Batch of 2 targets.
Target 1
Amino acid sequence: MKRLLITVFAALSVLTAPAWARDWQTIQASGKLHAITEGAFYPFNYFEGQTLTGFEVELAEAIAKELGLAIEWRTVPFDAQIAAIQQGRYDFAIASHGYTEQRAKAVDFTNPHYCTGGMIAARKDGPLTVKALAGKTVAVQIGTSYLENARKIPGLKALKTYKSDPEAFAALKAGKVDAWISDRFLVKATLEKNGDPNLAAGEQVFYERVSMILQKNNPELKEKLNEGLAAIMRNGVYQRLSQKYFGEDVSCPE
Ligand code: ARG
């Protein structure tokens, strides 16, 4: 009986024990950072054929290089990433997480790698301002700051959530919703790339600072990621990537 109890306790503690993310020493010894992103947030992280790429993917690669490491990438649905990081399953995520107090209770944020905001897109004759959204239906990706901020817009008829941002955009294109709220750079790039001439970008709804996220209580890893980011901001790599993807400097004003 005693033995059985001990076994049961041991099994339970494995299940409930917090999983610690790898510390800097372990990461360094392995030569690789385990990073996650989504792969469906153009042009920040997306697939070109089979290849994962984008501003954030190239940025993380450049940061890793500064730290003398390679990256082993995995893609995880956006709304599952905070839990995955909290559970210590990966070292960090770079998938356009805007800083929010609520998220900061669950994970740590590095210094921001860009500043941006949520923006409305709609038909040219549709609701292009926050005010005009009253009585309208809006598409957003689940788990995002667009959802949180759209909830605050007075008088919306319906808020429809989609698993990925391209699905939310597709709903707008198909006329299933009146408007879509997403990242302002993404809206611009998406409308340019595969937009319908009847669609337009509208008002910016809110502002946010976007960072990499990592498990709490991993100060050395956070410091290293910040150091790597600072280094590529100093040596011109950040600027080159920002120009390549956006034709402008997307870094946060000091
Ligand atoms: N910036 C928004 C947020 O923080 C959306 C990020 C969505 N990222 C993604 N890879 N789909 O919630």
Note: The pocket of arginine is lined by residues 38, 41, 45, 78, 95-98, 141, 144-145, 165, 183, 210 (CB under 6 Å).
Target 2
Amino acid sequence: MAKWKFPEGFVWGVATSAQQIEGAAQEDGRGLSIWDRFADGEGNITDGSRPDVACDHYHRWPEDIGLMRKLGLDSYRFSIAWPRIFPTGTGAVNAAGLDHYDRLVDGLLEAGIEPFPTLFHWDLPQALQDKGGWADRDTTSAFAEYAACVVRRLGDRVRRWATHNEPWCVATLGHEEGAHAPGLKEPRTALAVAHHLLLSHGLAVRAMRGEAHDAEYGIVQNHCPVVPASDSPEDFDAARWFDGFFNRWFLDPLFTGRYPEDAVADRIRAGHLDGPRLPFVHEGDMGIISTPLDFLGMNYYSRIVMRAGEDGKPVAVAMAPVDQLTDMGWEVYPDGLTGALLDIHRRYAPPAIYIAENGAAYDDAPGPDGRIVDQRRISYLHGHLLAARNALEAGVPLRGYFLWSLLDNFEWGFGFTKKFGLFAVDPVTRDRTPRASAAWYHAVIRENAVDDDLSLPAEGDSRVFQP
Ligand code: IFM
């Protein structure tokens, strides 16, 4: 079987986020987040669950570091909960919150795992939302102060920092579609929110560099390659439209200091902007947003196929048969990862790229021997690692891969119904059970290589996770 070796020093990791795994929602002075509040709303979370306990990682992190060590990880991408550090978003620091991440960072370093924190993965302090949240320009400076405060404490040990995770989700799902906290359906607000997220990123990078100059700073963007459903000019335009707001609305300002003109025109046509002058953009903002970055984190799960609807409005179409969909309904399409990496490399040329999230939700039942052989997840991961290899061979400066996710967790509006973990988490005891994919990933990391052919993990690799 032919093995393809990843470059020396390629970083292997897993990714998680605070709101999705920590729990301990009311412990050690943590403030309320917008997701704690959103979960109160009738019908907001499909299974009616709440993130209050989640995977109880806040207490079980030493055990989880043990799992990471068995996996052989180089790096752990986690997020810091803003409401633990500043329970009301600004003002007095909650020392217990900083202490928690201090211990986590030390625990990781003792295990030989690099801590790779993200400052904002959607858990805005509710007190800031009460003042307008991301629609309020003041939130941008609050974020920069919070980021600087965390770097002041952990910057002697943390070498790589990400500001935001997936700003598109916060702007669109949270403020235009109402599917995420804070649950607004206001397209005009969503545009201001997107701008303030980008601005806060630039302000934070500058503030953090002031605290720890030599560390590396970046942002994590979800990227979705878009394909027109046919050769018709209308379907091409539908694909351009989606790419404009999902991908380029964020990457263009970050790397070129400008919003994409065609996407601005789309928003004017839709009545979300009054004209080409964007009212929320102040003098100097675009220079701050395009502050040079050390890396771009890119999350990739699937592609989207677009066509022009009957009324001319773009609509997404399902092209893949059901057996090629994950439990999220997302098409398994590894080539899209190669395409996305090449596209970003050619258009924006970030100095380094990390695949900051990639993974699949599948709920495979344990077999008679109690083992969960999640062959579909292994196949998904295998296909995407081959796709990453193809991008590396084409010259993309890809430096690492972070699998989403270590544990089954609180999948936002889907509650605990979508299982992304290398480890299943019992909903009552919170005990972690390795899936076969954990052993498979362990072997990839150990070899720093991926086989051309797909195979299940060897018995020896599975034994690594036996108690
Ligand atoms: O769980 C999320 C994560 O919080 C952000 N990226 C996508 C994941 C899967 O939906």
Note: The mean pLDDT is 97.
